[in-house]
Structure formats: structure tokens, C-alpha cells
Amino acid sequence: MTTMIFHGGKLLNPRKPELQEGLEVLIEDGLVKEVSDTPLKSDTAQRIDLGGRTLCPGLIDAHVHMFMNEMNLGLARTVPITYASAKAAFVLKGMLMRGFTTVRDMGGGDYGMRDASDAGYIETPRLFVSNRFITQTGGHGDFRERSVVNEDYACCSASELFTIVADGLPEVLKAVRNELRKSADQIKVMLSGGVASPNDPLNSLQYRMDELQAIVEEAERWGVYVAGHAYSDDAIRRGLEAGIRTIEHGNFIQPETARDMAQRDAYLVPTLITYEITKRLGAASGKSADSRAKNDLVHAAGLESLEICRAAGVPIGYGTDLSMHTQQWQCDGLALQAEVMSPQGVIAAATITNAQVLRQEGKLGELVPGAHADLLVVDGDPYKDLSVFADGGPNLAAIMKGGVFYKNTLA
């Protein structure tokens, strides 16, 4: 049993607007055992001096894709799963070293990667997986080009990890049940068109209401919630009416729908940084011309959607949705989100709100007794300067997950 006491620094509690001084934190057997404003005594604990630095909970990214790391999703079928898995492990290690001790994979990540991480075979953030997302024929998630006439397009390749195409009640029920069988932490369904898919308009409404309601009912019977990819206001509204619990993206939401969302205790998981980086890189982003044109539309609406939801009282999380070589900008979305929210609000979004999204309140996102010892030691005050998380983590003196150091430069 490993026991440590952190002292000599400041504690970031995402529920409080200022850093707290004079506190000591006891870590025991991978959990936070005690937080005290008086010196803690232990005959066995290793005392770790923070040297005036900030101790804060590990960050949570509620929208990642560990397997979407090829330049063209349509060509992912040419990549063997063995290669894709090795590359995903590399990508996930990068997320951990940027300070994201937990991530929610929203399509592609499965129980195999999660279990390999839990067993210690790969070094990754704590993983919550959706397995394959569910899409209708021609919907966001159906990456076939128009020229493809056969349905068996994803067999025996990395593409089969991303998506399952299901139409009609029998097929969608079977699709949900199959992902639940494979122990998905949440189910993801496509409610509208998207940026990356080649054929569906952004404002398209995907799935009939009876199909959506069946998906939600089936998941809830297993104690699992449903997340919905949606851009248009109509798509968001239909998803909420069907019982969707988290709205991913939500760029074109309108005030009335946001108020309804708040009343239903549904969550918004914005992904603003992916549009910003695609806009910045242009063709070098790896997106097609059609996708970049769609990206321009959602990019322009992103910050406004955040303001609409903040004003309505919608709980707002933090996600990135980056893929391929753009993963390096994962932390930059924090400052982007701070153009609408306060720094404390952004940190709360990436910690305690995302913990609520994951149904892990009191276990993740804050350093309280009983929580996992997932923590960062930061040079600087994140409430005053969110850039302390930027540039791949050089300002992180230590990174811990489950009581194990993955980085430690403390003397």
C-alpha cells in the first residue's frame, strides 16, 4: 500500500473561485484519504513538498477519438486493427502526459483498450468507452463514398471499430444491445449531419423519433445513458425529447431549446477546438474541401452556442474531438472556452462537470476523501492563466493517476 502526503503548496478545488493555501492531502492505496488544514501525521507516508506549486485534480476530456488518427477516415479500412491499436495507445499516452487523467471516447474506443489500460499493459488516461457509434444509412458515421455500392465496407479493418449502420427498430435495438453486450460505458447515436462525413448535410435530421426513443429506452434498461451528436437546433430538440442525456457539439442551439435542455438536466459537451484547428490548418488538417466548408459554418457558431447555453443554465462540459495529428492542441480548447466562461468555469467544466457527465461525482474531477488519486502538480495558477496547461504539459511538474506517478519532477 502506497501512502503519500502532499504539502507546501496550494490546492485547486474547482468548486471554489480561489486556490486554497495551507492544506495537506493524504493519498493512500490509490485514493484520496484525507484533506486537512492542519499538518497530517503518518509513520509510513512519503511527504512530498509541492514547493509552492498548485495541486489540482486531473483534467477530463469528455469527447475524444483514440482510433481516428488517419488522414482520411474513408481510407481507414486499409489500416489493420493491430496498427490502429498501437497508434491509439500512443495517442492516449500523449493525452495523459498533457494532464488528462480521464477521457471519454465517443466512437472507436472499446472495452479491449479500456481493459488493457486497467491491467497496466498500456499507459493511458482512465477510459470510458462508447464502442461503436450508431448511425443510419447515409448518416454521420456512414463514411462510405457515394461510389461504394456494397454494404460490407468495414469488414476486417480499423473502420469496423468506429461505427455500426442500423436502420429501423429491429436493427437499432440489436445495435444497442450488441454494444451493451460489449460493456459500453455509454451509447452514442448520430442525430444530425456532421463535418467529417462525406454525404450528409449538417442540417439533416437523422433517425425517426421511434428509433431514437427505442435506443434510449434500451440503454436505460441497462443503466446506461445515451449521448447524441447534434448540430442543428431541431436535431438537439428531437434528441432531448427522446431522452438523450448529453448533446455533443450543439453549435446551432437556440435559446428556447437551451432552456428546455437545462430543465431536463441534460449536458452540453462542446468541442470548439477541433473547428478552430481545422480552420487554422486548412487543407493541412487532412479534411476534404467539403468537410472544411462545413467546418466554417460550425466554427462561426461555436462561441455563440456556448453563451446561449451558459445563459440558460445548461451544465457545460469540455471536449475536444480532435483527430489525427491535431491531438497536440488538446489543451488549447480550455483558453478558447474561456472566451465565454470564466477560468474557474472552464476548469470546472473539465473536472467536476465532466465527472457528472461520466456519473463519477465524488470519484473524479476533485480531490476529496474517497476520490481517485488522479492529480496534477502545476507551476502557476490555472485560475489566472489557463496557458499553464498548454504546449504539451511542460508546466506540469507531476502527473498521477490512481496513486501512480506517470511524471514526477518534484525534488
Layout of SSEs?
Layout: E1 3-7, E2 10-11, E3 20-21, E4 24-28, E5 31-36, E6 46-49, E7 54-57, E8 59-64, H1 81-97, E9 100-105, H2 111-118, E10 126-129, E11 133-135, E12 163-165, H3 168-181, E13 187-190, H4 209-221, E14 226-230, H5 233-242, E15 246-249, H6 255-263, E16 267-269, H7 272-281, H8 289-312, H9 332-337, H10 343-357, E17 375-378, E18 396-401, E19 404-408
Parallel strand pairs: 1-6, 2-7, 8-9, 9-10, 11-12, 13-14, 14-15, 15-16
Antiparallel strand pairs: 1-4, 2-3, 4-5, 7-17, 17-18, 18-19
* Helix-strand makeup class: alpha/beta
| Helical content (DSSP H or I, runs of 4+) | 25-40%
The number of helical runs is 10
Could you say which overall geometry the principal axes of the C-alpha atoms support? globular
CATH superfamily of the largest domain: Metal-dependent hydrolases
> SSE order, as H and E?
EEEEEEEEHEHEEEHEHEHEHEHHHHEEE
State the name of the first-level CATH class of the largest domain: Alpha Beta
Query: What is the residue-mean pLDDT, rounded to a whole number?
Result: 92
Q: Sheet bearing the most strands, described?
A: 6 strands, mixed
Instruction: State the CATH topology of the largest domain.
Output: TIM Barrel
- Ends: how far apart? 22 Å
Radius of gyration: 21 Å
Q: Name the poorly predicted regions.
A: 153-158
Tell me the count of domains.
Answer: 2
Query: What CATH architecture of the largest domain would you give?
Result: Alpha-Beta Barrel
The beta-strand count equals 19
Strand content: 15-25%
